[in-house]
Specification:
The protein is globular, with a radius of gyration of 18 Å. The protein is of the alpha/beta class and 283 residues long. It starts with a helix and ends in a 5-residue tail after the last helix. Helix content is 42%, strand content 15%. Strand 2, helix 4 and strand 3 form a beta-alpha-beta unit. The chain has a single domain, classed as Metal-dependent hydrolases (TIM Barrel), CATH 3.20.20.140. It is built from eleven helices and eight strands. Helix 5 packs parallel to helix 6. Bound molecules: zinc ion. Zinc ion binds next to loops.
Length: 283
Amino acid sequence: MQPSVPSLLNGSCRQSSEQLFDTHCHLDLPELSTDLPAFLTGAINAGVRRILVPAVEAARWPGLLQLQQQTSALTIELALGIHPWWAHSATEAQLGVLADMLRAETGVCAVGEIGLDFALVQADEDATKKLHQWQQTLFSAQLSLAAKAGKPVVLHHRKSQPALLAELKRQQFSQGGILHAFSGSTAQAHAFLDLGFKLGIGGTISYERAQKTRDTVRKLPLSALVLETDAPAMPLAGFQGQVNTPAQLALVFSQLCTLRSESADLLAQTLWQNSLTALQLPS
Ligand SMILES: [Zn+2]
């Protein structure tokens, strides 16, 4: 059974008065950008004070810088990079542009959203193999740019955790970052924690069927976790089929409260600090 909205809000600890950091929200995608002021107001009313917007493709990098400069209602942090879903439109030349922007733009705190998505397949095996190889090339190059720039990364994974870990180890990547949309076992979690990453906890934990992930999130050290919505994607249980929004971070937080033994205030404060640490932002 999936929890209803009221049961989410009436959990063992209600929303704390503390500030919340959404470490993964695609404010520039059309579902949110068309009515951005309203979504930002909703987020602020829900206690969100800072949002990391990870890029998905090179064509959107300039727009993100503009969004950051023009938003004063709350603090926008940026990660620039090429998402594996947008690999088909990516070029080698864009990697050069990314390197330049990481050097020149002081408002960019991380490289992302980068990673590997092996659940994406093409019409035939050969084309799928080629696509995954190109994803690997882009990931490897962007990871190395992040290392050169001394910046953390925001990682996308689907059926690809072993391959991500192998590349992080091969490059001896030491800047850490966030494994976005974490799901999995305690062993899977520790493999990334050992490499200096934190785990992005989102709407997945609101689904009763996600027992393994909920159990893992219950047991991990609090220092391992950060909050995220992944809006407009990944709606919470009870909101399937709707556009997810950054205001829903309060519900993700409420769900986390029901899984953890710490007080809401301690959770909120630690998650905020964890987000700053993962993204190498000053306190
Ligand atoms: Zn994302």
